[in-house]
Design brief:
Chain lengths: ~240, ~400
Amino acid sequence: MAEEILRLEGVRKSYGVGTPVETEVLHGIDLSLEAGEFAALIGPSGSGKSTLLHTVGLLERPSAGSIAIQGRDIGRLDETAITELRGRTLGFVFQFHYLIPAFSALENVLMPQLIDKGYRDREMERRAATLLDAVGLAAAADKKPSELSGGMQQRVAIARALAMHPPMVLADEPTGNLDTHTADDVFALLRQFNREQHTAFLIVTHDPRLAARCDRRIELVDGRIVSDTPTPSSSPEVTSL
Amino acid sequence: MPFELIVALRFLREGRMQSILIIVGVTVGVAVIIFITALITGLQGNIITRTLGTQAHIVVRPPDEVNRPVLRREDADIAARIEKRAQRLRSIDQWQSVFELVEHAPGVVAASPTVAGAAFASRGNANKSVALLGVDPVRYLRIVKVHESIAAGEFRVAGTDAVIGIELASDLGVNVGDKLRLTTAEGGNDIVTIAGIFDLGNKEVNRRWVFVTLKMAQNLLDLAGGVTNIDLAVKEIFSAETVAGTLSLQTGLLVESWMQTNAQLLAALRNQTITTVIIRIFVILIVALGIASVLVVSVVQKSREIGILRAMGTSSRKVMTVFLLQGAIVGFLGSLLGSLLAGALLIAFPRIFRDAGGFPFFEPDVNVWLFVTAMLVAVLTGIIAAATPARRAAHMDPVSAIRYG
């Protein structure tokens, strides 16, 4: 059995706690993800997909329940430890790329390593260059994000998400504002890293076409998981899981 | 280069126009502070030097003579009007021993016995009232450097040689080598030869002072063997008041420092200093507000970047450091440029503003510490000004930054 990298038990998330407008967005989520899984998180708008992703991404603390990443219960960690854990074990890809405009493509890709290590060195430059090459943007290394197309920016963001060799990457509508052709390319890239590096992906998407190409579909409605099924048409090596 | 510095520099470079404007702001602020401080310090130093150019730091005099009424009864008041006595010219009692004491008092670097009194200088029909100063030239020149302000001849006070001021010389129409008659109310009468003419830059002094030997002044003023005052120079000019106080207690004589004599001037200088301090504080405040406002805007503009940096594992402490560093860098660059600007102004100033004679009014007081202090203050101001925006950036919720950008 593959290593479990994520386990959520009874996770609830409320906003405006203690105020008259207190609303619970997640009502007790149980979920686990294993190394190398390629899962889609689907559901209508306002179902809590992004909140769940941010909670899994340790950007928000759950109001109740427990989250364990690679067996470590994050409820016991302080802010500094969580920040460090996030930097080392999680990669993020957001809908609007969110590259840092002041830095070149290469610098954006090496940013997570730079944050982790505190200063820049040759080794991280090499790794960043390799990753850029892997997403097919070796030639754009010195370009600023504003000089890149949307698809290119998203590919840089994917390279960046993988910079620290994270066991899990969280993607929020990674193809949300790309045309279908570019979206296919980007999606293929995610799939490629999943296969080659055995990185687990949890992808929030609206696009049923893309969800169908994931190994597993987790459907969220009104803050509850209503279905969690392997995709029938997925590739043989994943169905064997 | 550490991560925080890389990001801080890059953020500043990205917001180019804002960064340039605020650095220019700091530059001007620092330049104003350095320039005004150097100028005022130089000006005040110059005023004090000029004031002390014709004055001893401390003057020791005999105490005022007072009447001691003998009528006094325990059980009744006696109506008696006691008139103040006229102060006649007299010597310090046993001045040699007093001189010995004050010359070696701590803080005193030079002492000179002087006989001073009123006299008339006449030549032909011209007759001028003058202040006669009998001095021991070697000692006196250590107190007031008359020999550095000689317009003609030399400062030679010996025998019947005398040194007079340039105004008196022109009033009487005399020159070096000419003779002059000195008479006093005490009945003294002598003829002196003018050995030198001084110009101490003060008309009153140039018109009235006549230097003769101690002996001649004693004879003319009928003070055989006596001196009317002892002039002192101290090492630290602003310690004159304390030294004078001590000497007054030790000798029981009237001891007056230049600070007492020029109390008005010192009060004016103090007010000027306070004014410059206030100006400096306001300039620092304006610079700080400028830096803070630019960084506050920058934090808002960069909220997405801050969010993404936090998501990638940047601690809130590091985010805070990034913004504090921006404040420090702006302060540092601004102070560097400001120092250069102030330096240029300070070099140009004495060349542009000259007095009638073509000489600079005064030299601004330029010293390295002024620049170092100004730079430190600017960097510190930058950091303090950045504190609020930096804290805001550090406490920014990454999720809302990412969601709503």
